[in-house]
Write a structure and sequence with these properties.
Layout: H1 2-47, E1 59-73, E2 76-90, E3 94-108, E4 111-125
Antiparallel strand pairs: 1-2, 3-4
Length: about 140
């Protein structure tokens, strides 16, 4: 009785191992095909200008201002003057984006990828309603 039970368990284990071999080889084939598909999709995307980002108009005004700071040097206070460069970035009050988006499907071998083509017209309107920029206290955006 124990011997036949042990034989049945060993047979089931052997069948399980034998069935795992084709399953693992199929899993490896699936991974290989997925990698090949990803490479083809990247190649098609590169041939079509890859990924792009649309940004609106930004008015960038460079400036230089003089800053006087107090620094403590030992027991005495010293006034230090230096120039700080930066950029004032103004976004438009009105931003218009008009465009048309079309799709195209490209194929390499058995793999397909979708390409998006956009024809856009971007416009904006900047208006300064404040005091002259030179009279403002501006924090530098980027060091020189």
């Amino acid at each position: 009785m124990t011997r036949s039970l042990l034989f049945r368990i060993a047979t089931l284990f052997a069948l399980g191992v034998m069935l795992m071999v084709p399953l693992l080889s199929i899993g490896g084939l699936v991974q290989q095909r997925q990698k090949a598909r990803d490479l083809v999709v990247q190649e098609i995307a590169r041939s079509a200008a890859y990924a792009q980002t649309i940004t609106g108009p930004i008015l960038m005004v460079p400036y230089v201002r003089t800053v006087t700071e107090q620094q403590i040097d030992g027991a005495r206070t010293v006034l230090v003057t230096r120039e700080v460069a930066g950029e004032l970035r103004l976004l438009p009050q009105r931003f218009d984006l008009a465009g048309q988006l079309t799709t195209q499907e490209r194929q390499r071998g058995i793999y397909r990828a979708r390409i998006f083509d956009a024809t856009n017209h971007i416009s904006g309107h900047c208006e300064w309603k404040g005091p002259p920029p030179s009279s403002l206290f501006m924090v530098p955006v980027a060091p020189p």
